[in-house]
Specification:
Elements: H1 20-36, H2 48-55, H3 59-72, E1 75-78, E2 82-85, H4 90-114, H5 117-132, H6 136-153, H7 157-167, H8 174-177, H9 181-197, H10 201-225
Antiparallel strand pairs: 1-2
Domain HTH gntR-type: 21-88
GO molecular function: DNA binding; DNA-binding transcription factor activity
Protein name: DNA-binding transcriptional regulator, GntR family
């Protein structure tokens, strides 16, 4: 999940350069990366002009990205002073993962009823490949695909849309920063798979919720390690 924190399970490829929307997304992604890697600390002022120069883009997409990040709670705008990194607490991070887990749990609950035998086999194959993989970046990619398939199997465009928004606002780095996370994730994925195969909607929901709650604890530990809350 890189040195920034999208879900223990939901980061995707970065935006491509191109139109205004992509430039805004690129700027937002870079600001998140700097915040959650500890490069920009809570309370630090964000130099919009310098950031635009570093990214090789105009100031407009940077300003638009900061508005988006203000809505996410990552950035705080102070009148006549500028944009600052918001002072998020450990509970803010944990709560975000819990919310992510609740929505993901709903998707898994639906998926338990909808998944075809072929889709279950595809998930099993992904879990097998993830367990055998040693490259963190590839583990991240397979992990993303595993959860993406479950989310889409819910058959709910609304849940998938909400999960896409939530995924953009959390930190990643689990597979690189926590040596024991791949093993933990693999065990969780097997339990989730077993629940899905048994068509146990309630158990699939509960397991996914716990999986993401545990991810929240790992995210807090990772941010502490990176000095996120150090003065």
């Amino acid at each position: 999940m890189g040195d920034v924190v999208a879900m223990p399970e939901t980061t995707g490829a970065g935006p491509r350069r191109g139109g205004p929307a992509n430039l805004k997304a690129m700027a937002a992604q870079e600001i998140r990366r700097r915040v959650f890697s500890g490069q920009l600390r809570p309370g630090a002022k964000i130099d919009q002009d310098a950031l635009a120069d570093e990214l090789g883009i105009s100031k407009l997409p940077v300003r638009e990205a900061l508005i988006t990040l203000d809505h996410e709670g990552v950035v705080e705008h102070i009148a006549r002073r500028g944009a600052y990194v918001a002072r998020m607490t450990r509970e803010d991070i944990r709560d975000h993962y819990r919310v992510f887990g609740l929505v993901s749990g709903l998707a898994a609950e639906r998926a338990a009823r909808n998944l075809s035998p072929e889709s279950l086999q595809a998930l099993t194959d992904l879990a097998d490949r993830m367990a055998a993989e040693t490259d963190p970046a590839e583990q991240e990619r397979l992990n993303f695909e595993f959860h993406r398939r479950i989310n889409h199997a819910s058959g709910s465009r609304r849940l998938v849309s909400i999960l896409g928004l939530l995924a953009k606002t959390v930190s990643h780095g689990f597979y690189e920063a926590h040596e024991d996370w791949p093993g933990k994730a693999s065990e969780d994925h097997r339990r989730i798979l077993n629940a899905l195969a048994a068509r146990s909607a309630a158990r699939a929901k509960s397991l996914v919720e716990k999986h993401f709650a545990d991810g929240g604890e790992r995210a807090v530990a990772l941010l502490e390690q990176q000095g996120f809350w150090d003065r």
